[in-house]
Design a protein that fits this description.
mainly beta; eight-stranded antiparallel beta barrel; 1 helix; 18 strands; globular
């Protein structure tokens, strides 16, 4: 009852970390399909915009718009089909052209087989494509058996638009239709005991071009604490980012992709930020593949290290780390060049 009157809640966190070492591990594969029922209007709304750029419409194809969703999951496409759980999370339109969103969703199972378990999804969702792939980055269970490890390792999920398949025109109907059904095809790999899986290691360097003001702005605050300035060192400020990535530090260097996602100033003193980015490749070698980054960025340090939690395409099941190093800053134009070194292990 003290919770009702006390401003302080203390949580005890019990964490199990499963690290891949030099030993061999056997993976088991689980495949499942389900249907996600999404209402963007009406009395049964399940997907609602909560933040965006001031003066702009908060719609799915407007850069900077953040949606929170709680969609039902069913075995079949009918709303009356057997419920298997809920899809709960948020999506941020993270590309300047409004085509890509960074999606972070928990699939919370309520059916008998997986009741209490969750699957965590984080990745670049290509909103205008009929089929898009995003990674599953982790899993949790409410009941743990001593004979089986608790952590699911990264996998991938394909979401196919079931209703709006015909053309780009019909996909644009999302802005006026209250109902969208996604068919979700999920592959999950869980670690078990022992056999051989060979990992490849890929290292790469690239440069992020970040504009926080001016006509070419790529990094913009969309939410923050009321009455406070929405700046990078103010606790609670949320930025949406769509920076170009090039091979070299010059803006005229060969483009390799985009860094799209959100950055949240998550420390009270403003020194640390939570970074959630999709590295979306457009170059010939990795075109269509993504690398998903999540981690605590120490904003005032010269080199910041964050985790690679998964990937898609040529980087499915990726794990690794990335460093961000400020290479150049032009304060009058609010332009910065950030060198990123990425090391990933993948199959």
């Amino acid at each position: 009852m003290a919770l009702a009157i006390s401003p302080l809640l203390i949580l005890v966190l019990s964490t199990t970390v499963l690290a891949m070492a030099s030993t061999h591990h056997e993976f088991k594969e689980t495949k499942m399909s389900m249907y996600m029922h999404d209402f963007t209007a009406g009395p049964n709304i399940t997907d609602i915009p909560v933040a965006g750029i001031a003066g702009k419409l908060w719609v799915f194809n407007q850069f900077g718009t953040i949606y929170v969703n709680d969609d039902s999951l069913t075995e079949g496409p009918s709303r009356n089909s057997t419920a298997v759980g809920r899809a709960q999370g948020f999506a941020v339109t993270a590309s300047l052209d409004g085509r890509n969103a960074l999606s972070l969703i928990s699939f919370v199972f309520t059916n008998k087989k997986y009741n209490g378990s969750t699957i965590e999804v984080q990745g670049c969702y290509k909103q205008y494509e009929r089929s898009t792939e995003v990674p599953v980055v982790s899993e949790a269970r409410t009941q743990v058996r001593s004979t089986q490890p608790t952590a699911f390792i990264c996998s991938f999920l394909q979401a196919k638009l079931l209703i709006f398949l015909a053309s780009l025109t019909s996909i644009m109907a999302l802005t006026i239709s209250p109902l969208l059904i996604l068919v979700l095809s999920t592959t999950v790999l869980a670690m078990a005991s022992s056999t051989h899986h060979e990992l490849k290691e890929t290292k790469m360097s690239m440069y992020m071009h970040d504009f926080s003001a001016g006509p070419n702005i790529t990094d913009i605050p969309v939410a923050g604490i009321a009455g406070k300035l929405w700046v990078f060192n103010q606790f609670g400020t949320v930025y949406v980012v769509d920076d170009s990535l090039t091979e070299g530090p010059s803006r005229n260097s060969t483009v390799v992709g985009r860094a799209q996602g959100i950055v949240v100033t998550a420390s009270l003193d403003g020194r640390n930020a939570l970074v959630l980015l999709s590295i979306v490749f457009t170059n010939k070698k990795y075109n269509g593949s993504t690398i998903e980054i999540q981690g605590n960025s120490k904003q005032f340090e010269p080199i910041r290290e964050v985790a690679v939690v998964s990937g898609t395409g040529k980087f499915r099941f990726a794990r690794g780390y990335a460093t961000f190093e400020t290479y150049f800053v032009d304060q009058p134009t609010d332009y910065a060049v950030i060198r990123s070194n990425i090391t990933v292990q993948h199959y």
